[in-house]
Design a protein that fits this description.
Pfam families: PhoX (PF05787). With 660 residues, the protein is of the alpha+beta class. It has a domain of 360 residues. The protein is built from 10 helices and 35 strands. The strands form 9 sheets. It has a 9-stranded antiparallel β-sheet. A hairpin with a 7-residue loop joins strand 18 and strand 19. Helix 7 crosses helix 8.
Length: 660
């Protein structure tokens, strides 16, 4: 048995967190697996009781929950227990063993596997450490549980300057589970090697597949058109990346980044990475696989973005398939808006075909002709890649390169809608054939535009955004009349949960109603509990929250608060991990933009001091989970859950065979 790694929390953090940690260990979490007296009873329903928003300096600077979970059993027994937040580690905690050295969990590494060093203060070089942990996947291989975590970016260097082009990273952490309480602890951790795919660019959200792999993301893909101008930010960022990662700026190529990486873990606990080039290049927020295990939907983050769908040729294999983009036909502007979706085929390809195009060194100017003003034969498009309207024409024979390397620009040329704003997380409700999509800000490109470009989305501004519901149907054809080979094609979408903007800040500095969701980002759905979990990325809420929304009862409950200025990330509802339930939840960049808040309800200076003296301002982020959820199945269990259990047993069985 391997020696466990001690998680080194700072003294200040321990001082501020002792009550919460004690609560977590005292109650565990409420439910103790098969040792709990009601463990073998059939659960009828689960209901979350909302917590209040934090109102004191003490609560505003910590990650905590006062929410409860009410469980009703089929025999009429009712139980109510507290939820608890359990921090596994901070991104600055030295839990990672890397070349016989212990380094912080959020440390990026270069192509040789060495930590990337911050030399901004010449006489005090130190490793960069990200303060932005994001997506989590909990997977079990050969009887061992692993947590894959993203580290999205590093906010600033030691000199207090913004960092540009720093490579990102992921960490693979083996966690042990207490069989009596379900409590998770770190066993060991290591960095995941991305050198075979040219490194990792800004991994944001992600998802866990039913076959036990992790789908990551590369957000805000560098603009390949601007990269051809050495004075551009795109050239600076990609060149800096190449210097940091390869030690060679001549290897800078914007088309290396903007893809979906899939991470697999073998029976020995080693991770391997592939990038799926056939799923298209854009600002990947997340890739959500639908229940047929071959159809996937994507979040495309930023302004003037696009909705994409991919249908793989084979189940569980995203190395070949067909890429589509959606045209939004608005049907309502009320209550967040609604519209029908028509799908435009961009093309069919394989990872190998697209990688070969990239490896040839193709540039944007090899793919498109451009004009500086409206010109016959050129299409006017407005996409996230450029702040200006572009006039583009695909060069003969470059359609495939355009479709996959410049999916958003090519989609706009073909008539797809490139007007979504801050399209974030996606989750799927298998039982009801629904998907959910977070549109964090309904403003900007989603309002009526007058720029000479097609204007499909014309909604009133709602800065606090909305969470949409998408209906998934089969038997659909694309815009050309060709049948789409999927029974899970989104046919329409409408706002399900909307935020409420405030005319002026309240006493806590909120500019959106604190008892409603503002700027939804991470989404995760529990089929078992009929509950959609929603994490916020909001500058409109002074403290961001995680919410639980029961899609049957329509009840909305606040279940977690993260530190002031922080974003709630890494959200994943894991219904059954060895008979325990967890809601994985992180936080990143605590204290960000605090100085700009108009706060009168508490002493703002004391609030800032408490942040600095606790976990610090934008110094580190936290990785953890919500516990206290009931064990055992709810009702008969969904078909998807039963299939996941079967797949997990297959993984464990194969792992045991290999170990033997």
């Amino acid at each position: 048995m391997k020696k466990k790694v001690s998680v080194g929390l700072s003294i200040a953090l321990l001082a501020s967190s002792i009550p919460a940690l004690a609560s977590a260990h005292d109650h565990h979490h409420g439910y103790k697996g098969s040792h709990h007296p009601n463990a073998h009873k059939q659960i009828q329903s689960v209901e979350f009781t909302s917590m209040k928003a934090p109102s004191t300096v003490e609560n505003m600077v910590k990650t905590y929950t006062d929410a409860k979970v009410k469980v009703t059993y089929k025999d009429g027994t009712v139980e109510e227990n507290p939820l608890n937040y359990n921090q596994l580690f901070l991104s600055k905690d030295k839990i990672v063993k890397n070349k016989d050295e212990m380094i912080a969990a959020g440390t990026p590494i270069d192509a040789n596997g060495d930590p990337i060093v911050d030399t901004s203060v010449p006489d005090k070089p130190s490793n960069f450490v990200s303060d932005a942990p994001d997506s989590n996947s909990m997977i079990t291989i050969a009887g061992k549980s692993y947590l894959i975590s993203h580290y999205e970016y590093e906010s600033m260097n030691n000199a207090g300057e913004d960092v540009h082009g720093l490579p990102a990273s992921m960490t693979l952490t083996q966690v042990d589970r207490n069989p009596k309480t379900g409590e998770l602890t770190v066993n060991n951790a290591k960095k995941i090697d991305f050198s075979n795919v040219n490194g990792l660019w800004t991994p944001c959200n992600g998802s866990t597949t039913s076959w036990g792999t992790h789908l990551g993301s590369e957000e805000y893909e560098p603009d390949a058109r601007a990269f051809e101008d050495p004075s551009s930010c795109s050239y600076r960022d990609v060149t800096n990346f190449a210097k940091y990662y390869f030690g060679d700026e001549s290897k800078a190529n914007p088309y290396f980044y903007g893809w979906i990486p899939e991470i697999s873990v073998d029976n020995k606990g080693n991770a391997s990475v592939v990038k799926h080039y056939s799923t298209g290049r854009f600002s990947h927020e997340t890739m959500q696989v639908l229940p047929d295990e071959k159809t996937a939907l994507f979040g495309d983050d930023g302004g003037n973005t696009m909705m994409f769908m991919y249908v793989a040729d084979k189940k569980r294999d995203f190395s070949a398939g067909t890429l589509y983009a959606a045209k939004f036909n608005q049907t309502s502007a009320e209550n967040g808006g609604a519209g029908d979706l028509q799908w435009i085929k961009l093309g069919h390809s394989t990872d190998d075909e697209i990688k070969a195009i990239i490896d040839k060194g193709v540039k944007f100017s090899d793919i498109f002709e451009t004009a500086s003003e409206p010109t016959e034969g050129f299409t006017a498009v407005k996409t996230n890649a450029s702040k200006k309207v572009e006039y583009l024409k695909v060069k003969p024979g470059m359609e495939k390169a355009a479709a996959y390397l410049e999916a958003r620009r090519y989609g706009a040329i073909l008539g797809a809608t490139s007007e979504f704003n801050k399209m974030e997380g996606i989750a799927v409700n298998q039982k009801d054939k629904k998907a959910y999509m977070a549109i964090s800000y309904e403003n900007g490109s989603m309002e009526k535009q007058d720029n000479g470009v097609r204007d499909d989305i014309q909604l009133p501004a709602r800065d606090s955004g909305a969470t949409f519901q998408l209906n998934l149907t089969g038997g659909q054809a694309d815009a050309s009349g060709e049948k789409i080979n999927s029974e899970y094609v989104p046919s329409n979408m409408g706002a399900l949960i909307v935020g409420q903007d405030l005319e002026k800040p309240d006493a806590y500095g909120n500019t959106a109603a604190p008892d409603k969701i503002a700027n939804p980002d991470n989404l995760s759905f529990s089929d078992d509990m009929n509950t959609l979990f929603i994490g916020e990325d909001s500058a409109l809420h002074t403290n961001n929250f995680v919410w639980a929304y029961n899609v049957e009862t329509k009840k909305l409950s606040r279940i977690l608060s993260v530190p002031v200025g922080a974003e709630a990330t890494g959200l994943r509802a894991d219904d059954m991990i060895k008979d325990s339930r967890y809601i994985l939840s992180n936080y990143q960049h605590p204290g960000e933009d605090l100085d700009g808040k108009q706060i009168t309800a508490v002493d703002k200076q004391k609030l800032e001091e408490a942040m600095k003296n606790g976990i610090g301002i934008q110094e580190t982020g936290g990785v953890g989970y919500i516990s206290g959820l009931p064990s055992g199945k709810i009702g008969a269990g969904s078909k998807g859950e039963r299939e996941n259990d079967h797949h997990q047993k297959e993984n464990d069985h194969h792992g045991q065979e290999d170990d033997e």
